[in-house]
Amino acid sequence: MKKEKNNKPSKELPLGFVDRQEKELLIRDFVISNIKEIMIKYGFQYLETPSFEYTESIGKFLPDAERPDQGVFSFKDENNWLSLRYDLTAPLARYVAKNYLEIPKPFKRYQLGTVWRNEKPGPGRFREFLQFDADFVGTKSLQADAELCVMISEILEKCGLKKTDYIIKISSRKITEELFKKLNINDNNQRLTTLRALDKIDRLGWDGVKELLGAGRKDKSGDFTKGANLKSQDIQTIEETLKKKSPESEDLIEILKIFKDYNFSNFEFDPSIIRGLEYYTGATFEVNLKFDVTNNKGQVIQFGSIGGGGRYDNLVNNFGNYDAPATGISIGLDRLVYALMQKKEFKIKQSKPVVICVFDKKAMKEYISLQMILRKAGVSVEIYPGESKLKKQMEYANKIKSPAVILYGENEIKSGKPTLRNLGSGKEKTIEVKELVNEIKKII
RNA sequence: GCAGCAGUAGCUCAGUUGGUUAGAGCACUAGUUUGUGGAACUAGGGGUCGGUGGUUCGAAUCCACCCUGCUGUACCA
Asked: Is the CB atom of residue A60 positioned under 7 angstroms from any atom of strand B?
């Protein structure tokens, strides 16, 4: 905690939280409106669930400690532990279980919402972020899995990305499942460690992963990570299997066939797409950006994926005895927006008001009248919100990037002709009120 | 959590053989004769040098501990 002098409250933000400014928010709005449009086209229902859930409903583990803070923000109300959701999938499973008798089956819904994770933030990763999720619940059809990928691709392109800007990587848990069977790896811990190690291929390469599959690995800071302790023969089998360029599991073969029917080709089979989550049972996918993303110091950062998902046929059953196989995808919107902001060709329009300068408070009626005329015509306009010298008012207009100021002082009011100053060019024109709208529209 | 590095004004940083009232650029405020911005000039505000304790006549500068941040790594249901 940073101490402020005189015991004033800290102006710093908690670790992992950020203020977001207009430019980012406008791009986010743009992305969201594209998403909504496409979700309607694809026939998904819009859903919102609350930020808080009972802790036991969103975690796989019930709180066994005094305070369940394993990665979630929690607090206790009168009687119960509540937690801020850490994703939108668990709330979906809960919603489906709660409304099972009423909802259509299969159930297709999409959701936009903030999620929170109480963990160490990394570059471009925060403890509060906006997610977009689309899921099919209650169908085993691989058409659903395929369509999710096609749909994400359409969303990204609608947002202005080209085919060369992104790729959807796809794999299946069935591949690793079969490997485990074949190699007789039954210990759940060992399986998990293996999956997690394999998930790191893009970052560590096969050499690093093989260390993690074996005894363990020391990273460059000197920290040591314990490995899965597999036999070297098994490690070799795993490497050979996963290095194959085409899928051999039936589900993937079918999904790829459906992609073909959709004429969708911007994907890549990559058996290292494992995803850390334990609950996936079938296809897994990941959305990766292929252009460079830099941090605020201009350095290119390892951006990684902006989202992913897969099939999870058993998750909803956790809430009851329902047969609800499901598949879904989620996108980290803030990360997508952050990346979009860096595309040079990507411009978002920020409308800034024309400023009517205040020369004399007694003439306020005249200013208001001008303002009403302009607003009626749809022009963004404001009367300078304060009392300052003209110079200050100009500085203000300049600072907010106003396109123009209107000078309506004693002389102008007498003649009924305001002066319009273009803040881009610095040129001024004294014109009739009725011409004002047209002149301003030329500038904007 | 573990490991490495770092912590001086709002921001970017300078300031070590420890020594007078701690500096710069940018930003900010006021002004450069009273109706004009983005340039220039002048003046000004702002820091108990991350914190606490210690060594010393004297510490931003040395030591210890703590806190915070960055990076890597782990975890991420």
From this structure: yes
Those residues of chain A that have pLDDT short of 50 are: 1-6, 61-66
Q: What is residue A217's predicted lDDT score, i.e. its pLDDT? A: 83
For residue A255, what pLDDT is reported?
96
Q: What's the Å distance between residue A3 CA and nucleotide B56 C1'?
A: 28
Task: Please state whether strand B lies within 7 Å of residue A181 at its CB atom.
Answer: no
Residue type for position A45: Q
Contact, A65 CB vs strand B, < 7 Å: no
What is the model's pLDDT at position A61? 44
As a rounded value in angstroms, the CA-to-C1' distance for A16 and B72 is: 18
* Confidence at residue A62, expressed as pLDDT on a 0 to 100 scale: 38
Contact at 8 Å (CB) between A262 and A151? Answer: no
**CATH 3.40.50.800 residue window(s) in chain A:** 354-443
CATH code for the part of the protein at A5-49+85-185+230-341: 3.30.930.10
Domain A354-443, CATH class in plain words: alpha beta
Q: What is the structure's pLDDT at A71?
A: 78
**b/e per residue A63-84 (b: at least 16 CB within 10 A):** beeeebeeebbbeeeeeebbbb
